[in-house]
Protein: Serine aminopeptidase S33 domain-containing protein
Amino acid sequence: MASTGVPSPARKYFWGDSPEPDEYYASLGLRHSESYYQSPCGRLFTQSFHPLSAAHDGDVKGVVFMTHGYGTDSSWLFQYFAISYAQWGYAVFCADVLGHGRSDGIHGYVGDMESAARASLSFFLSIRKAAAYAPIPAFLLGESMGGAATLLMYLRSPPDAGWTGLIFSAPLFVIPEEMYPSRVRLFLYGLLLGFADTWAVLPDNNIGGKAIRDPEKLKVAGSNPRRYCGAPRVGTMRELARLTELLQGSFGEVMAPFLAVHGTGDVVTSPEGSKMLYERAPSEDKSLILYEGMCHELITGESDENRDRVLADLRAWIDERVRRYGSSTVTTPP
Structure:
């Protein structure tokens, strides 16, 4: 949940106007690819990141499937997640959520998160079940709205999905009261029997400005040519409100190992949601890290020092789960 309406000078890539992508990724020790995937619910834009040190696709520590937040996509600053994990020795796959980036759908509209999650899950499982990746540890990761989508994907996964663990960064499990869509407005628009669902008429409450604390990084985020910077659409906000309530009632079904990280200064997605998941989930391997005073965008909105602290915690957690579980997995709820 991290779009920004801040106007910024156009730039070719999130790292600037040069070098070109192949050179940039190679300089980081990575192999990068882009493609489209036809899901049962629409066509998705997808990306993959592999360490150049991996001679073959499955020659990695594990595989991580990532989902970005509201209004953004997988091709801009969210890549810091993907690049980091790939540099740590993991294969990473991302998909733009329906209604976002280069995937199908009305820009900024997610009126049915069940369909959006089903689309991304279909892509992730197509990779997970491939011969190169089926034997190795696999993790789902989601940031902000993508955290909510990630938990929904876990809950909707087939028993043989084989998820080793879940990773949540500032997940949208509880909407802060000041960010909650007007219940009166949602009711009144609801009287139009769905005709208003795609209308971009709800207040945005300066989501971008509240999500990113570093002013220079806010400018970079604002230069994303595929960001959604319009007002929130009626159906999207109604669906996110519904989804958070559904997920809160499903925390007791989370059996997989998981890590949730959240800044205590986050006013876009409440850290209370991560606390609730930690308290209610019956998982025997669960971790919660709260960062005092940090904002919503822990990786792309904080100082480099804070970012590196969070990344170190993320790396330590996943490396330990690979060491601890190897190819064994904890899958979906019974």
Notes: The chain is about 35% helix and 15% strand. Strands lie at 30-39, 42-51, 63-67, 91-95, 138-143, 165-169, 258-263, 286-291. The radius of gyration is 18 Å. The domain at 21-325 is CATH 3.40.50.1820 (Rossmann fold).
